[in-house]
Design goal:
188 residues, Transmembrane protein, membrane, transmembrane helix, transmembrane
Length: 188
């Protein structure tokens, strides 16, 4: 049988099967075929499950044999103590604001008058510099601006974004975007 006659043969076979068994018979045959495929896949799934269980048992046994992993937890706590030193001080906040404005220019986004607020809790290790920007532009531009700020200022966190569409048929959105810039305090 050549490749040109195969589709004709399959079409003829389908019509003959439909005439002989009807639609319910074909659906039943398909259900039986699906059940047979599932039944044949069970040993493979079972062997994979046993392999995963064996590797989990080995991992638990290895963990029980090496109790020195508890010392690693203390080292992780020590490294957390070094975390504040990784942040810049509040004196460098002007550079971060300049980067945010540069990202707005690159995104072709006009920023409105921003509101700035410094929040430092007594005895805290970090100072939060909250910056609220009102913007008006299309969704894609606003989204690109937020993503570029978060990618270029490592100590920035997006705290709030509030978006409104003033006109139903318009594509210009009004948004308020609040970033939280985190700095370490100057005191030891």
């Amino acid at each position: 049988m050549n490749a040109r006659r195969l589709p004709d043969f399959l079409l003829t076979l389908r019509f003959e099967m439909r005439r002989a068994f009807g639609v319910p018979g074909l659906l039943g045959a398909m259900a039986l075929a699906a059940a047979a495929m599932t039944w044949s896949a069970i040993p493979t799934v079972d062997s994979q499950t046993r392999g995963l269980q064996d590797s989990a048992r080995q991992a638990r046994a290895a963990k029980a044999r090496h109790p020195d992993d508890a010392g690693r937890g203390a080292a992780e706590v020590n490294s957390l103590g070094k975390l504040p030193a990784l942040f810049s001080t509040f004196a460098e906040s002007g550079n971060d604001i300049a980067v945010i404005f540069a990202q707005a220019r690159e995104s072709h986004l006009a920023l409105g008058s921003a509101q700035y607020q410094t929040v430092t809790e007594p005895g805290a290790t970090f100072t939060h510099y909250q910056v609220l920007f009102p913007v008006k532009d299309q969704y894609g531009t606003i989204r690109r601006f937020v993503a570029s700020v978060l990618n270029s200022v490592p100590n920035a966190a997006l705290q709030e974004i509030h978006v409104e569409r003033p006109a139903v048929d318009g594509n210009v959105l009004e948004a308020r975007i609040r970033f939280d810039l985190i700095y370490r305090t100057d005191r030891p």
